[in-house]
Design a protein that fits this description.
This protein has 337 residues and is of the alpha/beta class. The chain has a single domain, classed as NADP-dependent oxidoreductase domain (TIM Barrel, Alpha-Beta Barrel). It contains eleven helices and 14 strands. It has an eight-stranded parallel barrel with strand order 3-4-5-8-9-10-11-14, surrounded by five helices. A two-stranded antiparallel ribbon has the order 1-2. It has a two-stranded antiparallel ribbon with strand order 6-7. Strand 1 and strand 2 form a beta hairpin. Helix 1 packs across helix 2, helix 1 packs parallel to helix 9 and helix 3 crosses helix 4. The C terminus is likely disordered.
Length: 337
């Protein structure tokens, strides 16, 4: 699988990344055998970038990912994890985590973007994964913690990066405006942008993507299916958009995009995966994958031909923004970076 380098670093990511939140029992239990098989299928498909976080299953995702990668050559893959939520003992457990993961709540999350919190979080992650290092570390959802994240957490990560302990640093969020601030105002190399540059939402064109282009920094795209609405050939009522039931108007718009995709001999989910790559600042699309079957399907969708003319037609019909780059535009602008 093709690899692209995070600008100004030595870290390269395969086109597709493996999002490990779901193997941390996101929304439902995933058997350990299925989680391991999913990582193995990702490896067989050529995926060498794996993303996790303490938040995912109160450490379960990190433990499972580390175990699944343990016998792989360490120099052949990239792992990212995140800081900002420390896992601490839960003095008032109720039995099951209340933040979307089907795991026991013997631990709880505590927001902490201090220097000490960052160092402790990294130490805990290395212990859970069994890894000797992390290649990328993101600040995780610092929406309500800008000051401490920018003034304490990011300088701590920058020091570790400059010492060669970490390969690249950044932030991961579901919004784009603050990610642009991280690119402009901090030492961030890369940001993970969730859900804000998709076939249904191109709001990142207003802030983080221009910032990445201007500064020569990199963006990883996540949430490209917008919680599921773009994951099927024919969207239907009852599907999710940004973790909520999709409004009828958005379902109708997704169906219209699917019609244009079919007219160009491709499918909606294949186009959803291909779309972020039209922008030269985006170097990777990371997808949550729970089973080996999902891995193989996503790899096939990634390989499916999506013609540049599709983007032109979607723009002409007002189904995506007029300032979206086509593949040809993106290639030209990439050469200018």
């Amino acid at each position: 699988m093709h690899q692209r380098k995070i600008h100004h670093t030595s870290v390269s990511l395969t086109d597709l990344g493996f999002g490990a939140s779901v193997i941390g029992n996101l929304y439902q239990v995933t058997a350990v055998e299925d989680a391991t098989a999913a990582v193995e299928a990702a490896w067989e498909a050529g995926i060498r970038y794996f993303d996790t976080a303490p938040h995912y299953g109160l450490g379960l995702s990190e433990r499972r990912l580390g175990a699944a990668l343990r016998d792989r050559p360490r120099g052949e893959y990239v792992v990212s994890s995140k800081v900002g939520r420390l896992l601490v003992p839960n003095d008032q457990p109720r039995g099951v985590d209340d933040e979307g993961f089907v795991v026991r709540d013997d631990l709880r999350r505590r927001w902490d973007f201090s220097r000490d919190g960052v160092l402790r979080s990294l130490e805990d992650t290395l212990e859970r994964t069994g890894l000797d290092r992390l290649d990328i570390v993101y600040l995780h959802d610092p929406d309500d913690h800008w000051q401490q994240a920018a003034d304490e957490a990011m300088p701590a990560l920058a020091e570790l990066r400059d010492q060669g302990v970490i390969g690249a640093i950044g932030a991961g969020m579901n919004q784009s405006a603050m990610l642009a601030r991280f690119l402009h105002e901090t030492a961030a190399d890369v940001v993970m942008l969730a859900g804000r540059y998709t076939l249904l939402d191109q709001s990142a064109l207003d802030d983080v993507l221009p910032a990445a282009r201007a500064l020569g920094k990199s963006v990883v795209a996540a949430g490209v299916f917008n919680s599921g609405l773009l994951s099927r050939d024919r969207p239907a009522e009852g599907m999710k958009y940004d973790y909520q039931d999709a409004p009828p108007a958005l379902v109708a718009r997704a169906q219209a995009i699917a019609d244009v995709c079919a007219a160009h001999g491709t499918t909606l989910p294949a186009a959803a995966i291909a779309f972020p790559y039209t922008h030269p600042g985006i170097i990777n699309v990371t997808l949550g994958m729970r089973t080996s079957e999902q891995v193989r399907r996503n790899a096939e969708l990634h390989d499916q031909h999506v013609p540049d003319a599709l983007w032109d037609d979607l723009r002409a019909q007002g189904l995506i923004r007029s300032d979206v780059l086509t593949g040809r535009d993106g290639e030209r602008d990439a050469r200018c970076l």
